[in-house]
Amino acid sequence: MKTTREAAREASHKNLVEALNILLEKNYNAEKGFKKAMEHADSLQLKRFLKKQAVQRNHFATELDKQIHELNEHPKESSKGSTIANIHRFWIDIKTAISKNDDESILEECLRGEKSSLKEYDEKLEKLMLPPKVKAMLEDHRKKISETLKDISVLEDLYD
């Protein structure tokens, strides 16, 4: 029989792995969304920006995947970015923006998606007891997402 401490440790571990899997899946989906938006953007500058964001999200996913393995766990199969019932609204909205073939609309949807990503990271950082290494990684991701939000705002001003 497990002690209370052992049970709490197991629950904490399970919650951490679950949170990392959620972020992993969202980053894979974000990467795909940025790539799709890049295909439909008109401006070369915007295409470069979107490609940079897709690469960054792939890097985030790689770091999350590595961390899950370091916790002696395996990422969920769906973490490869497969379609799920509750896909991030940004990636649904981006389809609408893409259908307009309007760079400003694409940026608006990117802004909405990045705000949602920032919120997701904030929730994980706020609600979970994280090992220092994991906390530092998530804070770094959060900081870069925040910087992306600023960059999107600057680009939006160019397309007004």
Automatic annotation (TrEMBL):
UniProt xrefs under InterPro entries: CHP02284, DUF2383, Ferritin-like, Ferritin-like_SF, UCP029477
Domain DUF2383, residue spans: 17-127
UniProt xrefs under Pfam families: DUF2383 (PF09537)
NCBIfam families cross-referenced by the UniProt entry: PA2169 family four-helix-bundle protein
Protein name per the record: PA2169 family four-helix-bundle protein
Organism (species): Christiangramia oceanisediminis
